[in-house]
## 1
Amino acid sequence: MADRAAAHATGDVRRRLRYWFDNTMARGTPALIGWLALVCLLIVIPVSAALVWADKETPTTLRNQLVAIWKNIGETFSLGGAIGTPAYVLLSVLLAVVALLFASTLVGLITTGVQNKIMDLRQGRSMVLEDRHLVVLGWSDQVYPIVSQLAEAESNQRKAVVAILAAQDKVEMEENIRAKVPDLKGTRVICRTGDTADPAVVRLVNPHTARSVIVVARDEAATTADAQVIKTLLALNSGPGLRPDGHVVAVVRDSRNLLAAKLAAGERGRVLSIDDVTARLIVQTARQPGLSLVYTDLLNFEGDEFYTVAEPRLVGRPFGEALLAYDSSSVVGLVRADDGIELNPPADSVIREDDLIIVITEDDDTAVLAERPADVDEGAIVEVPDAPAAPERVLLLGWNRRTGTVIEQLAGYVADGSVIDVVARGASAAAEAEQLPPYSNLTVNFRSGETSQPEVLESLDIGSYSSVILLGYENEDEAEETRPEPDVETLVTLLHLRAMEAELGRELRVVTEMSDDSNRALAPISEGADFIVSGKVISLLMTQISENHRLADLFRELGNPDGYEIYLKPATHYVAPRREVTYATVVESARRQRQCAIGYRLHEESATGPAFGIHLNPDKRSTVRFGDGDSVIVLAED
């Protein structure tokens, strides 16, 4: 047994040394020249010294010995001149020529072998021998924000590694990442080429020792992309298995494939549906202007985000007391060891020993208890109950596979007597609209029309709607050469809506779905407008869950119409207007209304970037003066 363990250890060291050598050789010609120079020096210098010291007439002083060694090194590659009989000279020259031919052939063989090895390395076929690294399986435009966010999340870690396996050229992947993510903040990205549905190929990136694995859907038709994701999950689970604290995060494009993907992912997997996540965020944002900005801030590692922390000093204390226990962190819930996620539990709920506290904070080490709670201005606290929900009129422009889910989600929120008017082109949209189920509180009306045409928009009385939802068309069935660029029709429609805003003399409440984040800068609409870029949102969400798998349940709760969600409510419902108060006063007022305050939005800053008036997780000792149009961001149950 001991001999077997020693042999295993020796083999592991040999694999590690070869892995290090492979990574060095993959750097190209400079590394090759360096290795050749090193090998020459390691051979020529000892042999030259041995020749000097083996010579009977060797010099006696060290200085002369070093000079003789130097001469031998200098003459190593010269043929020299043989003196003697013609036969001796001829044989010497013949031997020299044979030696030269042999050396040339040997160099050629070695060079060819090294070139083949370098080409093999550049094709990304060698094993990744890392531990507690992050693995990304698959390739799409989502990879760039994923890598960027992982680098940001790991910026306080030494030797962070992200290994990517995809059916793409290794060099091309590396070049694209360097171009799109220039600042990796010390994170090393390793790319490998291969089929993610092949179990043997998946092992190249060593997923069983990874801290987390992210499976992305390819940029192609939903059916094909989701099939590849499911096969990748099956290939991943056919291997040795994940480490005890490892987990998998995957995404499917079509919600109809969600169940199959969950089965393939297993118990350690978390699978997201682009359709469901996007639809929920669109509906919530349509009813809560500015919400997309809040979610972008929460999901982005460059700002404040969700963390789970243990705090022994709060054990046995009521949850309501924890809300003011941190100066620079916002408490929003608990992770119960037996009951899972509990957002905004009752204020008198006792924090148990094995509970984790859910906080919004800058980093995992910034949730520090305050020496004493911040001051609360009791005289500034007001309580204004929310007005009863009124029926809503919503206009939905465009159609894609998420439209039915958007309407279903909307029906879970709106009051009785609400109406949604859908305008879209195409017989398929009309046919699908006919198949929509009836809702008791929401009337769905469908009208065929080209939403990018001004005469169609002008006939809709847009000013009468409480909100406008603009969905992008999907053109997956069209030939690639005739397929329009993503978001072109959306941008044209926004142009017309902007012109109609000028005629109405007021800003329309518009939430826009886009497929490419780079097109958002081209959108002819106010700076702080709500945009839902499905690919980016999913990338941010997957990265958050990859860093903390418990957040999957938290985000699922936030998207549940029957649970607690994020709202932007009038600031005058919490504190007296135009009165300077500490933010702790706002938190206390929200607590008394059974809500968790996590920030605020100032109306006068809403058109100014980069935050557009959003102040997420401000210090409770800071002061603020609210006016008309300002909002408090709360976690509440509607």
Note: The first strand starts at residue 134 and ends at 137.
## 2
Amino acid sequence: MIRGFKDEGIVLARRNYSEADRILVLYTKNCGKLSMIAKGVRKPSSRKRASIEMFSKINFQAATGRGLDILTETEILDSFDEIRSNLPKVSVAYFFCEVVGKITRDDERNASLYSLLIDYLGKLKTSLNLRTLRAEFTKDALVLSGFWPEGKPLDDPDQALESVTEKKINSIRVGKKLTS
């Protein structure tokens, strides 16, 4: 008996696996951060191919597998096309996804953080001041995750983020250059 589940999520990361598959990292509304395999999506005839692009908001259905869950169905809710046509905005969207991926653990549920990510991707569509948006997102994400006290000012969000994750955030460097 195969058990499955449905949820809504944002694609945080993806990497190629074998000849035709991809491993995805999704941040979901009800399950938190999940890694799953999308079988056959690298084939030209795959119907799921377009819906699993980076920072796409999707409804999905997955089957519980032995190791990784298996993505079985997808539906695009928002592909954020307004962001994809602007390189500085794309770099900030990658930054948002990388931050959420680094400050959360697998299966850690945080509906507020999910809503924050959706809200900021929506703001990114029309925002002109990307540097401020980036800093606000970092602070809000740290507060919602419990890594920074609410109401306390944060002078250098990037430094606070690196101390929390104990790693460099790869997209910080690119985001700083493009948003300055």
Note: The chain has two domains: 4-78, 81-179.
## 3
Amino acid sequence: MIPQLVQQIATAIGGPTPANLQLAQAEVLTSDPLDLVLRMEQVWNDADLWAQGQPPAGPARTALIGLNAFETGQWTTPPNAPLPVPTGTQPAWDHLIYAYAIENTRAPQILARVVRAFRSGEGLGVASVATQRWLDATEALLFGATNPFAAWLSTSSVRPDAEAVRRNAYFRLLGMDLAHGTDTNTPYPYDKAEASNRGFVTVFEELLFELWRAIENVRNLVAGNTTDDDRIYRLAEQLGFMLRSRRIDAVLGREELAATTAMGWVELTVSSNTSVVRDLRAEATSSVDRLRIIGERVRLAPHSRASSFFAMAAELSLLLRALEGGWVTGNGQSWLLYQTTPPPGMPPLPPGQRPLGAEVRRVITEWAAASGHDLKQRTVPVTVVPAGTPLPARR
């Protein structure tokens, strides 16, 4: 939700130029926490993933949603126009794997130490007014402190730890744990569900291997083309089935929105030399360098491959939305995952679909760097299990 909101504001200002994006980032980072929470609730309500003929929000919540600054046009940067939630075939937030990638950098735990230090003393200096506004929103979005409107939260007295809730969701949908434990380097306690996609990584890496072979052969017009469109389709089908099997009746939808919003806030915080970055004297030319300097200030190092996680988070989200949404419905659509433009003679694509060749190439490069797995060489082929009766594609 956060990256999408920044893009919307920049477009409303006059287009997503670097200067307008910087203004939009500052607008979001200094927003009132309640406006951001109500925007989340608006995004959830408009998505209507339950599809029961009646949106999730009742009259009282709907009235509150209508008061958020982005809905009323009362955000501070001209032209102060209302910003309706974007409509489309996919939810207006990132896939859960985006949150997984950003959280694996360890940025949330590092920023938790920043919040604690600023709120409990002046060891990091005196926070500027803009940074104090950032602290208010960070405590609301990441840590749920005195949230004035908690209906959206994926936490409660039953499951009070937001990070544990996110870890549970990552394990259920993606079969993966984060690469780190607590900020004191002990194992992180959370509920591990029995029903989880433990085979996701194996099948996903096999798909990336096949897609790399296809990318290598895009311009190969002679003998020896090893592209296997049917296998790409079968692997994509199996991954889509796995992901949708954890999404029946929009299960994990709210947890995904909460996680991706929190991690979008984290990424936005270190995406440029924002107020908190300047107050921490952590100015640098990249997100990972800013995070590294901030980590030094609070004595907690980020993941050694944090640059790869930052670099592929958005592309991973696009790829998994395509797989879960069932873009590849036969071997005749496999090209969507490795071409950058439609092959000659192809019919128009459905709304919201486009070739993902450039994004897949980035994912292959950065996933290999982050995991240490050579995706360009196969060790043991993965057996593709027939999906059986497919579950409905996610709305």
Note: The mean pLDDT is 91.
